[in-house]
């Protein structure tokens, strides 16, 4: 089984932002997504105000990189297929 690295998650969040119109979001860009790590786990958060407030979009608290990778991969594959179908 391949090790899931932090850079994989960072790239997924970058793709998610790009799909939502955020090419290179700055800290606390409202609507942009960010990867946060704590307690040995990870979660995806979305900025909800310009003061840096976030809403957690990956449920289950801080989870392992592997637990986060596959749902993000599925979400991105779905988004890409919908985008391709609309062209």
Number of E strands? 3
The whole-angstrom Rg is 13 Å
* Helix content percent band: 40-55%
Could you give a short account of the major beta sheet?
Answer: 3 strands, antiparallel
Assembly type = single chain
Q: Runs with pLDDT <50, length 5+? A: none
Order of helices and strands: HEEEH
In percent, how much strand structure appears in the residues?
15-25%
Number of alpha- plus pi-helical segments: 2
Gap from first CA to last CA: 36 Å
Number of domains in the coordinates? Answer: 1
SS class: alpha+beta
Summarize model confidence as the mean pLDDT.
94
Question: Judging from the principal axes of the Cα atoms, what is the shape?
Answer: globular
Strand order of the largest sheet: 1-2-3
């Amino acid at each position: 089984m391949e090790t899931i690295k932090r850079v994989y998650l960072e790239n997924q969040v970058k793709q998610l932002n790009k799909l939502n119109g955020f090419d290179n979001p700055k800290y606390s860009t409202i609507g942009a997504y960010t990867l946060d790590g704590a307690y040995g786990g990870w979660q995806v958060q979305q900025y909800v105000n310009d003061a840096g407030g976030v809403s957690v979009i990956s449920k289950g608290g801080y989870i392992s990189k592997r637990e986060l990778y596959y749902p993000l991969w599925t979400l991105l594959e779905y988004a890409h297929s919908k985008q391709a179908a609309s062209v």
